[in-house]
Amino acid sequence: MAEEDVPLDVRVSAIVERLRAANDVEAADLLDRVHSSLEHTRYWYGTRHERLWHWAHAELTEQQRQRFFSIVANGTASVNEPPTYA
């Protein structure tokens, strides 16, 4: 199995264990905290995105939905304006 096929959680856990085995507890703890923070952020945004998706489909018109999801995805409702992340 290629490394990129291994789930990130499994890869991070293996690296943390290798760091602890090498007595680099500080690096292991830091990586563990960073990974936990990333997982929390993914959960936090995922929950809100799902709730907004359901709300938008239940209460907005098609035109409002298109503008809303354009803003969520690109930071702008205009198709002529480049995305804010570009």
Short description:
With 86 residues, the protein is mostly helical.
Category by helix and strand content: mainly alpha
Compute the separation of the termini in Å. 34 Å
Shape: elongated
Strand residue content? under 5%
Number of domains: 1
Radius of gyration: 20 Å
Write down how many β-strands occur, each being a DSSP E stretch of 2 or more residues. 0
Count of helical regions: 3
Q: What is the arithmetic mean of pLDDT?
A: 89
The largest pleated sheet is described as: none
Helix content estimate: over 70%
Helix-strand pattern, N to C? HHH
Low-pLDDT residue intervals, each spanning 5 or more residues = none
Description:
By secondary structure, this protein is mainly α. The protein is 72% helix and 0% strand. The protein has one domain (3-74). It has helices at residues 8-21, 25-59, 62-74. The longest helix is centred in the middle third of the chain and has 35 residues, at 25-59. The chain is elongated. It starts with 7 loop residues before the first helix and ends in a 12-residue tail after the last helix.
Which properties best describe this structure?
86 residues; mainly alpha; 3 helices
What topology does this entry show?
Blueprint: H1 8-21, H2 25-59, H3 62-74
Helix pairs in contact: 1-2
